[in-house]
Amino acid sequence: MPNWNKTLNHPLFNVAFFLVSRQITKRLDLDNYIWYLRALYVTAQLAILGMSYYLITVVKKKNDKTLLRYVEPAKQNWDGTDAPEQLVNITVMDYDIEEIKKSIKQSLMGIAMIIVLHLKFNYVQPLIIQSILGFKTFLLTKEARIHIWGERATTGELKRPFRVVSPFGLNNEKMQPKVDQGSIKKAEKARKAA
């Protein structure tokens, strides 16, 4: 049996989906249905945002107060210098809510980009594509996989804190949260010294 999560999250799936849907929509007369497509897009995005807020309520109902400790990697400042690493003490519930809010912000940025593409450049295909891909993206987030699909969050890619994945699938170990005791003790000492 195929691993549907890996298949649907694979970059080639998104490319193939885009190319197939582009060819299908290219053959249709979309100008006559522009208001219906806009309504479809707005409805889909509102539904996705609603599901995101529903997911927050599910996380709050579970009320997992397990303490999660990790060291957030140093981020680069505007002048090119590295900011110090930050020790993070957070509950699993608060961590999951923060991650869901990050995905809501990403969705809102995507909505803004699609609106610009549509209104400024008169592209119609992104309305259709994002109406469908938005649901796929939401349902395959790590939070949805844990809290909606019931996958185990103790090992693998669903273990908290989540690994930072770049858009092109390249993993930079320097940008990953550190959970080893040595890094946590070092960050605690740095916090006390400051």
From TrEMBL:
Record Pfam families: Pho88
Feature: compositional bias, Basic and acidic residues: 183-194
Keywords recorded for this protein, A-Z: Membrane, Transmembrane, Transmembrane helix
GO biological process, one term: protein targeting to ER
Ranges in a coiled coil: none
Spans traversing the lipid bilayer: 33-56
Domain of life the protein comes from: Eukaryota
GO CC term, one of those recorded: mitochondrion
Region: Disordered, residue numbers: 175-194
Protein name according to UniProt: Inorganic phosphate transporter
Organism this protein belongs to: Phycomyces blakesleeanus (strain ATCC 8743b / DSM 1359 / FGSC 10004 / NBRC 33097 / NRRL 1555)
